[in-house]
Amino acid sequence: MSAFNAKELKERFNPDGSVLHSQQTIMLEMVTELDRICRKHNIPYFLYGGTLLGAIRHNGFIPWDDDLDVGLLRKDYLRLMEVLPKELPPHIALQTNDTDPNYFYFFAKLRHRHSLLEEECPYDQVFRERGVYIDIFPFERMRLWTHIIAEPLQGHTFKIFRTAKNREWAMKRIRAITWMNKHLTFPLLRFISRVTGGSTLTYDYGIPFRIVYDERDIFPLTTHEFEGVQLSVPGNSHHMLQTQYGDYMQLPNLDHVQGHVNRLEIFDR
Question: SS3 string of 100-137?
Answer without folding.
Answer: CCCCCCCCEEEEECCEEEEECCCHHHHCCCCCCEEEEE
